[in-house]
Every structure is written in structure tokens, then in C-alpha cells.
Write a structure and sequence with these properties.
single chain, 169 residues, 8 helices, 80% helix
């Protein structure tokens, strides 16, 4: 049961293990606590992340992502400023027919929507869609993903602490 809990890709619950191995759930829970199954699993996940140098890969990806997000922010701000200017022009242009102005306002609303969606997709505003879809497809965060994020953050924190200490030497 311990190996199933520690090594399976998707972490089984104590209830699932009890059913699979035909054991009382209280026995499974007691064994898990006595033997430290959650820590064994976390250590295994941590070792797997370290083996592929996940921390360094995440830092590299974050640096690239920050550059893209920064450029996206600039483009988004410029686009919204231009759209605002167009909106003011349409509102103040009394020479156009009402239907033309209404059509232009409709087009502008689509432009605003598209800019907002692009900024959300890039993670500039709101919560990054990819992570939200991956982490909480049914409104609940997957425990495995939360554990992976936690281990990754711990590794990044350790690495940052090491870098700070090294820079002080």
C-alpha cells in the first residue's frame, strides 16, 4: 500500500487504498501516519523534479515569460489607448448616421473584448487561463498539481537562498 501511495502518478486516497487492498481505512490511515507516507511521496516528487532540473527550467521559462508579458502589457496599453481615442471620435462625430455610429461602437466593443482576452491569455490580467484550466477544471484544485507547485516553490526558494548566500560571500 505504501508503494502504491508513494509511486503512483495520481495520489490515491486512503479510502481507495483500503478498497483496493481490502483493508480497513483506519488501518491504512494509521500506517500512513506512522510511516510518513505523505513525506515519502513529497520526497519522491522532489527527487524527480531535481533529476530533470525543474527549478532551473522554471526559472528560465519565467524569465522568457516575463519578457513576453512585459511586451504584451505595452501592446495592450497602446491598443486600449487607441481604442479609447476611436471611441471618443465615434461618440463626438455627429455627421455620421446613427446606424453607422452604432456599427462603429459595436466594432469597438469587439476590439476591446479581443484586447482584454489577449491580456488575460498572456496572464497580464486575471489568472493565467492555462493554469486555471489545468489546476481547477471542475472548480477544485487537483491535489497533485498543488503538491507539485508546492515542491517547485520550495526548490525555487532554496535556490534563491543559496544564490543570496553565495552573493554575500
Amino acid at each position: 500500500m505504501r508503494d502504491a501511495f508513494v509511486t503512483r502518478e495520481s495520489r490515491p486516497t486512503y479510502d481507495e487504498l483500503a478498497m483496493e487492498f481490502n483493508a480497513p481505512v483506519t488501518t491504512v490511515r494509521a500506517a500512513a501516519l506512522d510511516e510518513g507516507w505523505p513525506m515519502l511521496r513529497a520526497n519522491k516528487v522532489n527527487a524527480a523534479l531535481e533529476a530533470v532540473n525543474a527549478g532551473e527550467q522554471i526559472l528560465t521559462a519565467l524569465k522568457s515569460s516575463r519578457a513576453i508579458v512585459s511586451a504584451g502589457e505595452n501592446v495592450g496599453i497602446i491598443a486600449l489607448q487607441k481604442i479609447t481615442q476611436l471611441l471618443e471620435d465615434v461618440i463626438n462625430d455627429k455627421d455620421k448616421a446613427v446606424s453607422t455610429r452604432a456599427n462603429n461602437l459595436n466594432t469597438i466593443s469587439f476590439a476591446i473584448s479581443n484586447v482584454a482576452k489577449a491580456m488575460k491569455d498572456l496572464g497580464i490580467v486575471g489568472f493565467a487561463k492555462g493554469l486555471q484550466d489545468e489546476g481547477a477544471p471542475n472548480g477544485k484544485w487537483r491535489p497533485e498539481l498543488l503538491q507539485q507547485i508546492n515542491v517547485t516553490v520550495q526548490n525555487l526558494t532554496k535556490q534563491a537562498t543559496r544564490e543570496v548566500k553565495e552573493s554575500q560571500i
